[in-house]
Amino acid sequence: xxxxxxxPIPVELSERIEDFIRYLLSERGYSPNTAESYRDDLEAxxxxxxxxxxxxxxxxxxxxxxxxVRLDAEGKAPSSRERAVATMRSFFKFLTSVLDFPSxxxxxxxxxxxxxxxxxxxxxxxxxxLLAQPDTxxxxxxxxxxxxxxxxxxxIRASETVSLRLLDVDLDEKLLRVMGKGSKERLVPFGLPxxxxxxxxxxxxxxxxxxxxxxxxxxxxxxxGKLSRIGLWKILKKYALPxxxxxxxxxxxxxxxxxxxxxxxxCDLRALQEMLGHxxxxxxQVYTHLDIxxxxxxxxxxxxxx
Length: 306
Known about the structure:
13 helices; 3-stranded antiparallel β-sheet; 54% helix; DNA polymerase, domain 1; 4% strand; single chain; hpI Integrase, Chain A; 306 residues; mainly alpha
């Protein structure tokens, strides 16, 4: 968050940031990537304090509001400023509850106004075209087909996809055991096309990639090791390019597509929340704004004056 530059961080704040990051990783089970995003936000605050010759004990609610104004002036997106507020609230809650800090100046810090952007998603035709792209006569093509089918069938995150282990897949019951954010485990069902793609990959592709190496990861790279998120991103871009959707594809496009298509088919919002691993229903509700045509159809069918 903000240009890191060479500006130092006030000493006491820097020490407490390190305590907080250790707490997130060891006690809360946050991923290193998530913990680093918290660090970025807090170090941006630290650089702001350093410019003013202040440190942690000097922080007040008006000062935090001034910091938020600075972020706005720097052109930070509402989503970035919203994250900064959430970070500061969590940080000071940690200080007051765990380290006996005298007060929480971020408790009443307001969230920035934000018009929530609707997630992009693929149409049924675009999804089918994407899933049909991999060449299933090669081991890598079989792997890629299984990856795409799994992501669309379950809506799991890119990070969750590359973290799947062989033991997490129950082909008989057509279930995935997924370790989500905050080390929260959930079971996600999938359908027959996904099962067939995974079976073909395991039967004819994966062994040729691992070459007898012991690996517990479900999806491996060309050398038989764990597939990275960057590697997964390259796979998505590779198959999106020939069908003209490369500019719209991002690591979570199949997650957004899964959620939207489920709602279009009449899926219950609470069930979708469980499958996506959202801790708050409001996060899932963003998808309800996407299928306006279906909402109009339901309104016309069931409302007395529809």
